[in-house]
Amino acid sequence: AQEPPGPPYVFNVRDDSPLAGKIRVRDTVVAVDGVDARNMAANEVSKFLSTRHRNPERKITILRAVDNGGVDGRAVLAHDGTLSADGNTFGTSFDIINIIAPAGKLGLIIDSPP
Known about the structure:
Elements: E1 9-13, E2 28-32, E3 35-36, H1 42-51, E4 57-67, E5 72-73, E6 75-77, E7 83-85, E8 92-102, E9 108-111
Antiparallel strand pairs: 1-9, 2-3, 2-4, 4-5, 4-8, 6-7
């Protein structure tokens, strides 16, 4: 059996998104409202978020790779639980961030790693 490609990540944030400035392109989505999203396909995460669009708030837990040089990368969480970042990993740290999303459309495009 083939393993899923890995946790989905934010591919695009629309300028009019209520999360613009909070969530970033390349953030890895690890959970939505406490439900583990690491093995979900990108379309599953998008559908799950949209089924909760009437909730007053949704909690999106993301993993962000922060390079000490100021360049953020996409955090890569392997199936064995190890963390790495695409690109240069020297001086990279990882932040787990809970973002509270309001009701309605979020203006996010979620994608899966190749």
